[in-house]
Design brief:
single chain, about 270 residues, alpha+beta, ten-stranded antiparallel β-sheet, two-stranded antiparallel sheet, 5 helices
C-alpha cells in the first residue's frame, strides 16, 4: 500500500518556525490535523501537522515540532487538562484526522483517501464515493475554518477555536461519531496513545490518475508526552511507525529458529 503513496522526505513536511506573534496560517489539501476537545467546553484546540507523507514513509519515531502548545491547552482546558482526565464526561479528548479532497493537489493519494486515529473506532465508509464526503469536509470545512483564523502565539501551527462555530474541531466530533463517518469516534482520552490508520480510495482511472487499490493500513501510533505542571509544564507529540510486515516475518522466523535450537539441545540432554 505504501508503495503507491508519495515518498516525500520528512524535511519537506513544511513545519513552520516558531514565531512570537500570531499570523495567518495555510491549510493544504491532505494535511493531517490533531484536535483536542472537552465536552461542555466553549473552546477547542487544533494543530495542523502537515502532509501525511512524513508518517507513511517513517522508519523510526518522529517527535513533531509544535511549539509550546501545552500552554494553549492549559488556557483552553485548565491546568489539570492532563492530570485529571479519564474520570468522567469532562475528560479532555484528542484525535487525528486528514482527508484528500482533490488528487491533483495531493501527490499520489487519490481523492477520498482518509487518515484517522483509531481508539476503537470503526470505518463506516467503504468506497471512494462515501469517503469523498468526509474528505471534502476535512479540507473545505475543518481546513477552511483553520485557514481563516490566526495561529497561537505559543505554537505556530496551533489554533484556539470556538467550539460552537461551524467548521471547528468540536463541530465535527459529537462524542458519538466523527465527521459523520467514524462510529463511535476517532477520539480518545489524552493519557492514551492512539493508533493512526490510512483508508485508501480507488480512482479506477476515471480521473486520469490510473488504477488505485482501496484498502486500510495501520501506519503507526501517536503518543502525547507531558511532563511538569503549571507554567513549567511541557508537552510533545510523537509518532511511532508500525513495523513493516517483513519485520514480523523476520521476527517470527528468528524466534522459530531459536526455539528449534533450544528444543534440539533439550533432546540431546
Amino acid at each position: 500500500m505504501k508503495s503507491i503513496l508519495s515518498t516525500a522526505l520528512l524535511a519537506t513536511a513544511g513545519f513552520a518556525i516558531v514565531t512570537s506573534s500570531a499570523s495567518a496560517i495555510t491549510a493544504n489539501d491532505g494535511d493531517i490535523y490533531i484536535g483536542f476537545r472537552e465536552n461542555g467546553s466553549a473552546q477547542d484546540y487544533l494543530i495542523d501537522v502537515g502532509q501525511p507523507d512524513q508518517f507513511e514513509t517513517a522508519t523510526s519515531p518522529i517527535t513533531l515540532s509544535l511549539g509550546n502548545f501545552a500552554s494553549d491547552l492549559r488556557t483552553v482546558f485548565g491546568n489539570s487538562w492532563y492530570a485529571n482526565n479519564g474520570i468522567g464526561q469532562n475528560s479532555v479528548l484528542w484525535g487525528v484526522v486528514g482527508g484528500v479532497a482533490s488528487q491533483s493537489t495531493s501527490g499520489n493519494d487519490y481523492a477520498g483517501t482518509l487518515y484517522a486515529s483509531t481508539p476503537g473506532a470503526n470505518w463506516s465508509s467503504s468506497d471512494s464515493g462515501s469517503q469523498a464526503i468526509p474528505a471534502n469536509n476535512i479540507f473545505n470545512g475543518l481546513g477552511a475554518f483553520y485557514q481563516h483564523h490566526t495561529n497561537s502565539t505559543n505554537a505556530p501551527l496551533g489554533q484556539i477555536q470556538t467550539s460552537a462555530s461551524t467548521g471547528s474541531w468540536a463541530s465535527y466530533n459529537t462524542g458519538t461519531q466523527s465527521f459523520g463517518t467514524w462510529i463511535p469516534t476517532i477520539e480518545g482520552v489524552v493519557t492514551n496513545n492512539i493508533g493512526f490508520d490510512l483508508l485508501a480510495a480507488t480512482d479506477n482511472g476515471a480521473n486520469g490518475f490510473g488504477q488505485g487499490a482501496a484498502g486500510s493500513e495501520k501506519l503507526g501510533t501517536f503518543s502525547l508526552n507531558v511532563s511538569g505542571s503549571g507554567a513549567s509544564q511541557t508537552a510533545s507529540v510523537t509518532f511511532t511507525p508500525a513495523p513493516e510486515p517483513s519485520s514480523f516475518v523476520l521476527l517470527s522466523s528468528g524466534l522459530a529458529g531459536f526455539l528449534g535450537f533450544v528444543r534440539r539441545r533439550s533432546n540431546r540432554a
